[in-house]
Design a protein that fits this description.
Layout: H1 2-11, H2 14-20, H3 23-29, E1 31-33, H4 57-60, E2 65-67, H5 72-85, E3 93-96, H6 109-114, H7 118-133, E4 139-140, H8 164-179, E5 190-196, H9 215-231, E6 236-239, E7 243-244, E8 247-248, H10 253-263, E9 269-271, H11 276-283, H12 289-299, E10 304-305, H13 309-319, H14 325-341, H15 357-360, H16 364-377, E11 379-383, E12 394-398, H17 423-429, E13 433-438, H18 448-455, E14 459-465, H19 487-495, E15 499-505, E16 520-523, H20 531-540, E17 604-610, E18 619-627, E19 633-643, E20 654-663, E21 668-675, E22 682-683, E23 689-690, E24 694-701, E25 708-714
Parallel strand pairs: 1-2, 1-10, 2-3, 3-4, 4-5, 5-6, 6-9, 12-13, 12-14, 14-15, 15-16
Antiparallel strand pairs: 7-8, 11-16, 17-18, 18-21, 19-20, 19-24, 22-23, 24-25
Bound molecules: 1-deoxynojirimycin.
Length: 723
């Protein structure tokens, strides 16, 4: 009977449907609650401020959407109970954070960005969508399009790094992968781009903190990835926790109305972050929750996630004549539209009822894909020739990740690390000669007997890093060196006169200190379900590393923020004898490893660059590169521009194109980039693109410290590109 009713509802015009709803039912559609509200028996799970939401059963069953869901059975039982109780029979939409996998876990987003391969990100998202839909999840809170230049912020692991161009491509690829061509199809999810806006620029990298920035910085650096996700069709957008130039984003009418809706043409649904509307009171911008509800609905918030200012106060605000019911109707319309587009009126259990979980979730092809992608995300930071490892060489593995399965990364709540292999297991499986392995953080964790065994090895592999759960939300740090005394393990290896390979597991660029003297360093971030196999493939050389850093590695915390695309000063650093220049007394301006850096076992020589003196549309840049080695592999060829003279001042380099190219051993190739006028544009503080005639520098290389460069003249002039 419920199904018949639903079909009837679906056929009805949504406007008609809204007319049949009471004001309480309308406002209910704008409330999102976690599953435990619907299952009384699991109420114990309620934590933090939500304990005081104070909702009665009738109010709960007015909700329009659910945040997070345990599994297929839970989804089906909640939807069923809801539809039985509900008068209007509008199904719930289930939303969740499917960030880098459902049960087959892919590398964390920061690692994915290091692949410089958006098509892999699209494939990972497609697989994640399919797996998540087996549990009846319909919307994912991804991509996180927040550019970040501050490794103190724990959430850089969820970001695509510091560069607006790279993050834009990755954000768009994520949307395409999750949504496919049509979100009504089984196996596809709707995307929710987040966190609008500029959450990655919070002061001092302390989570939830303030953001103050110039508008030309916003338009040129922070806005592009959100815009790219919107252009790719993201159906939802989430507002950020932070204030933006004085107003909490959740109630920032200029951000929502003028920028998101008018300038970026976003037509989808806008949701707060977790209890975001209530937080407006804590920010000191609303006196109480009623005023928060007022500011939220006026600013353009459709769904309130996990707080109850709407359900408790919107009705009164309408009755008092402060809020026009039409605004609420419009918001409800967007919720219903999303449900219709997702096909929920036809099948409220979408995916959970029709997909065969056993055949899909963690199937071999998905796990293989996690490994293939992991291969491209690890970054070889240093290699003095010790890598790849000869299989005959005796290895000792020490450090907390020597024999540890926790390689999934922080946003993998459905992933089961017990199914992962450890590094020691993966080495042994590949028949490397492992003479010793034992987890430990500090030199004192290794006793005399251990040291005897370690001495038998030719190479000590230091498997170091952060715990998964010390990265991600609310995991900001001020000290970015390896925690818990792990640097002492390098001393141990040196005392024993051993060569070392350092393998890093972490969610943010770290300060390496003395670790930099290790013979080889492989940055693996958290690579997911098949991390260990992928790492051993790279170390043994059956796969050649090709990842490049999506975020700068600093020398010490005092340099933060340090990023490649900075502006110049009037006194740029020139040489060490010049005192009054922009520099520190105690550390150089250089990063430890720059954006775009990443080694290969191959040796790529950038031989020559061929381009016209005058820039025109469909402008070609040809680069000749030689692989001067016996190793075949990928190189990420990166093209940067600099506008030599500009007002406002522009960055010293801006990534505008890259290609990931396969080279056979000893192969020479000519790579062609095609540039357009739009690649040279910059935006003013009103967000209008412009271009000034003059010289540009085009430079090319395998990192942001480029190898070849040439000046070109562009005579085009654009005042306001949008005219
Ligand atoms: C808070 C986080 O900021 C956001 O990214 C996430 O999507 C929501 N919680 C829901 O889990």
């Amino acid at each position: 009977l419920a199904r018949v009713l639903l079909r009837k509802v679906y056929k009805m015009n949504l406007k008609q449907l809204i007319k049949t709803l009471s004001i309480e039912e309308k406002i209910g559609q704008l409330m999102q609650l976690a599953p435990f509200f619907f299952k009384k028996d699991s109420k114990v799970e309620v934590i933090g401020s939500v304990r005081h939401l104070d909702l009665d059963e009738d109010e709960i069953f007015l909700a329009g959407s659910v945040l997070g869901i345990g599994n297929r059975e839970e989804m089906i039982s909640i939807q069923k109970k809801y539809l039985e109780k509900s008068r209007h029979k509008i199904p719930l939409v289930f939303m969740a954070d499917i960030i880098h996998g459902y049960e087959s876990i892919f590398p964390i987003p920061l690692a994915l960005a290091c692949s410089f391969n958006p098509s892999l990100v699209e494939q990972a998202s497609k697989v994640s969508a399919l797996e998540a839909q087996t549990a009846g999840i319909h919307v994912t809170f991804a991509p996180m399009a927040d550019v970040s230049r501050d490794p103190r912020w724990g959430r850089v692991m969820e970001s695509f790094g510091e560069d607006p161009y790279l993050a834009s491509l990755m954000s768009a690829a994520t949307v395409k992968g999750f949504q496919g061509s049509d979100i009504s199809k089984v196996g596809h999810l709707a995307s929710c781009v987040k966190h609008f806006a500029a959450y990655g620029a919070i002061e001092a990298g302390r989570d939830y903190n303030t953001v103050e920035m110039s508008m030309h910085q916003f338009y040129n650096v922070y806005a592009p990835p959100y815009e790219a996700a919107i252009k790719a069709g993201s159906h939802l957008a989430m507002m950020a926790f932070n204030t933006f130039n004085g107003i909490p984003c959740t109630v920032h009418d200029t951000l929502i109305q003028n920028i998101l809706k008018d300038e970026m043409h976003f037509k989808g649904l806008i949701i707060t972050d977790y209890d975001g509307l209530q937080q407006v009171v804590a920010h000191g911008v609303a006196e109480n929750r009623k005023e928060a509800a007022y500011q939220g609905i006026k600013a353009g918030i459709d769904i309130e996630m996990m707080s109850t200012t709407y359900i408790k106060h919107l009705k009164a605000l309408v009755e008092e004549g402060r809020v026009d019911i039409k605004i609420i109707d419009d918001a409800v319309m967007r919720v219903l539209e999303l449900k219709r587009k997702l096909g929920l009126f036809e099948d409220p259990y979408k995916g959970a009822s029709s997909l065969d979980r056993n055949k899909i979730v963690m199937c071999e092809s998905h796990l293989e894909l996690t490994k293939k992608i992991a291969h491209e995300c690890a970054v070889l930071l240093k290699n003095d020739g010790l890598l790849p490892i000869d299989k005959e060489v005796k290895l000792a593995l020490i450090g907390p990740y020597a024999n540890n399965q926790q390689t999934n990364g922080a946003w993998s709540w459905h992933g089961d690390t017990r199914k992962n292999k450890t590094l020691a297991e993966a080495f042994i499986k590949q028949q490397n000669k492992v003479v010793f392995y034992k987890n430990g953080h500090h030199i004192s964790d290794y006793h005399e007997d251990d040291i005897k065994e370690i001495s038998k090895a030719d190479i000590v592999i230091l498997c170091l890093g952060e715990y998964e759960r010390e990265t991600g939300e609310a995991k900001s740090k001020t000290k970015l060196n390896l925690p818990r005394g792990q640097e002492t393990l390098l001393e141990l290896a040196k005392l024993l006169n051993k060569k070392t390979i350092t393998i890093l597991f972490n969610g943010r660029p770290l300060v390496l200190n003395e670790m930099i003297t290790s013979n080889a360093i492989l940055e693996t971030w958290f690579l997911g379900s098949r991390a260990a196999d992928a790492i051993v493939d790279l170390l043994n050389g059956s796969v050649n590393p090709s990842g490049k850093l999506a975020m700068t590695f600093i020398q010490n915390e005092g340099q933060i923020p340090l990023y490649y695309n900075h502006l110049n000063t009037g006194r740029p650093y020139r040489d060490e004898y010049n005192e009054y220049v922009s520099k520190y007394l105690d550390v150089s301006n250089e990063p430890e490893f720059c954006f775009g850096h990443g080694l290969s076992y191959a040796n790529f020589i950038y031989q020559s660059m061929d381009l016209d003196d005058n820039f025109s549309n469909n402008y070609q840049v040809k680069v000749q590169i030689k692989n001067d080695s016996k190793f075949a592999g990928y190189e990420v060829v990166q093209l940067y521009i600099k506008d030599n003279v500009s007002r406002p001042v522009r960055p010293i380099k801006e990534l505008k194109a890259f290609q990931k190219v396969w080279f056979e051993a000893n192969e020479t190739k000519t790579i062609i980039f095609e540039l357009h006028q739009s690649d040279l544009l910059y935006k003013n503080e009103k967000g209008k693109p412009f271009l000034e005639a003059g010289f540009f520098t085009i430079s090319i290389g395998g990192s942001s410290q480029t190898k070849l460069s040439k000046q070109v003249y562009c005579k085009e002039e654009i005042d306001d590109y949008s005219k």
